[in-house]
Amino acid sequence: MRTKRNWLFFSLFLVAILLGGILANAQRTQDATLALDYPEGCTVILVGKAASTDGSVMSTHTCDCGICDWTFRFVHGAENKEGAVRKIYHVSQYRTWPPQEGLKWEKSKEDYIDFDIPQPARTFTYIHGMFAYMNENQVAIGESTIGAPRKLINSTPSAKIDLTMLTMLGMERAKTARDAIKIMGSLAEEYGYGFHDDGEMLAVSDPNEIWIFEIMPVGPLWAPGTGKPGAVWCAQRVPDDHVSVCPNESRIGEIDLENSDYFMASSNVISLAIEKKLYDPESGEPFNFKKAYAPSENSATASGGSRARMWRFFDLVAPSQKFSPDTPNMDFPFSVKPDKKLSAQDVMNLTRDKYQGTMYDPAAGLRGGPFKNPNYHPRPVKVGDTTYYTPRTIGVNRAEYTTVTQCRDWLPNPIGGIVWIAFGAQDTACYMPFYIGIDRIPSSFEVGDHWEFNRKSARWAFDYVDFHTLVAYSHAIQDVKKCQEYWEGGALERTPAIDAFAHELYKKDPKQASQFLNDYCNSNADAAVNAWWKLGDDLLVKYRGLSIYDTKKRTRSNLPYPEDWLKEVIRFHKLPAQKPRKISHNMNIDIVGADLREALPL
C-alpha cells in the first residue's frame, strides 16, 4: 500500500514538474510578446524633406479612439524665474468628463501627483490636442501605440511620467527634433515612464529631420534612486529622401549606436532586453529592437486585412517594389524611397485610404451594402463564439481627429510650421491650416464631447456630415468631395501666397505677421466649420427617405441601387418576378433597376 502511495505521489510530482515547465514556458512565450490585444489605434506617416514635393518635413497622427477627448488648445510659452518648477500630472489618453464638469485640460490638473521637476528658464509655445503637436521652433510629433511585453508594463506610482505629459514636456523644452528625443528620453529615464501608458512610438520632426522614437516602461519593480533608467527607448532617423509609417507596430530593427547621425538610445537598450530574457546574446543573432521588445508575426494576408496598414502604405508609396501582402509586417523595411515625391495633399489622401480596389476593400461585395459604404465593419465581427477578421483601414470612422504637420526650413519658424487639423472621420472631414505663429485657435475647437450634441463645437459639424453621408455613401461622398476640394484644396492652393505675404510682414514687424496669420487661420476655420454645418443640412434634404431631392429643379427621384446588389437580394429572398403593369394606351412598363426597391419587402 505504501509502495502504491509512493508511486502515486511520485507520479503526481512528475506531472507537477511537467505542468510547471509547460506553464513557465507559456509564460515566457507570453512575456516575450505584446499584450493579447494588439493595438489598433493611431496611424503615423513620416515624410523626409527630400521626399516631399516642396521640401517640407511632414508627419501625421490619426487619433483613432472613438471615446477620447477631441479638443485642442493653444499653450503659451513663458519666461520662468530661477527655482521655478513644473507640476506633473497623470493624464490618461482615454478619460473624459461631462462638459458641465469642465474641460479635460483643466480637470486633468486634479490628477496632480504632488511631484514637481525643475522648470527651464524659457518654455515654448505649442499647439496641443490629445498630445502636444508642434511648438514655436517647428518641433512636431505624431503618435502611435505599439504595446510592450507584459513584464515591462509599469502602472505603479513609481512611473511619474506618462505619454501625454512626456509630449508636453518635450514641446515646452525642445529647439530641435534631436533635443526633443533626448529631453523626453532623459526625463523618462530619471523619473520613470508608464503609469497610464506602455509601449509608444512618436514621430519627432523639425524642418530638417524626422525620427521614429520608441519608448517603453521597464517593469513594476523599478524605483527612483536605484541608479537604473526608468524607461527604455530607441530612436532612428528616417533618411531625408525616404518615407515611413507606424501602424501600431514597432518599426526599429537592428541598431548601430556608433552611427549617431541615425541612431540614439537609452543606455539600457540592450542590457534590459538581456535581463528580461527578451534577447539572448548567445544566439548569434544581432540585437533587433522590435524583435526583442515588440515582436509581431502578423501580415496583411494572415490577418485577413486587419493588420494590412503596413503593406498598404508601402504598396501605395512605392508600387514599383511590388510589396506582397504575404510579407510579414516585421520584414518590411524601416523606410523606403517613394516612387514619387509626396505633397501635403498626397499625405492627406493617404490618411483617408480605405484599400479601394484591393482584396481588402471593405466596401466590396455585400460588406458595403448597396451604396458601397466602407465604414460598416471597422472592427472584427463576432457571430456566436467565433470572431471574424475585417479590414482595418488607414482611414477609420472612429477617428477623433487627424493632424498633418509641416516643418519648412526656408521660412521663419512662425510661418514655416503648420498643423493641419481635420475632425472626425477622414473621408468626410476637412483639413484646416494653423500656422505655429498664431496665438489663439477658434473657441469651437476647444469644446465638445461625444455624448452631448453641441453646435458650438467644431467637431460636431463634421460628425453631422459624416452621419448623413453614411446613409447613401456612394452618392453623398461625391457632395463631400466637392466641399473638400473647395475648402481643403483651396487652403492648400492659397498656402504659397499666405506664406509670402506673412513673410513680408514678418520682415517689417513679426507682430503684424502673427496678427495676419491669426486672422487668416481662424477665419478660414470658422468658415469651413460653417460650410460643414450647411453641408450636413444639404445632405439631409437631398437624400432623405432614400431619395434624391433636387432643390434647384424641385424634383424628386428614386435613389438608384446597383443592379448587382439588387440581383443578390432577389436571389437571397427568392423574390417572385412581377408581371408587367398595364398603363394608359396599352403600354407596358417593367419595374426594374431603382424602382424595384419599392416592391421589395426589405
Notable traits:
602 residues; 13 helices; five-stranded antiparallel sheet; disordered N terminus; six-stranded antiparallel sheet; 24 strands; disordered C terminus; 3 domains
Explain the overall architecture.
The protein is an alpha+beta fold. The chain has three domains: 50-353, no CATH class; 424-434 and 448-546, no CATH class; 560-599, no CATH class. Helix content is 31%, strand content 18%. The chain has 13 helices and 24 strands. It has helices spanning 2-31, 104-107, 163-173, 177-191, 271-275, 289-293, 309-317, 344-351, 413-416, 458-471, 473-508, 510-543, 563-573, and strands at 44-47, 57-64, 73-75, 78-79, 85-89, 112-118, 122-123, 126-128, 132-135, 140-145, 200-205, 210-216, 232-237, 243-246, 263-265, 381-383, 386-388, 399-407, 418-423, 432-435, 547-550, 555-558, 581-582, 588-589. The chain has a six-stranded antiparallel sheet with strand order 14-1-2-18-19-20. A five-stranded antiparallel sheet has the order 10-11-12-13-15, with helices on one face. It has a three-stranded antiparallel sheet with strand order 3-8-9, covered by helices on one side. Helix 3 (163-173) crosses helix 4. The longest helix has 36 residues, at 473-508. The termini are far apart.
Distance between the termini: 75 Å
Proportion in β-strands: 15-25%
Number of strands: 24
Q: What coarse outline follows from CA principal-axis ratios?
A: globular
* Count of discrete alpha- or pi-helical segments spanning 4 or more residues: 13
Class inferred from helices and paired strands: alpha+beta
Strands of the largest sheet, in order across it? Answer: 14-1-2-18-19-20
Integer-rounded radius of gyration: 27 Å
Assembly form of the protein: single chain
How many structural domains can be distinguished in the coordinates? 3
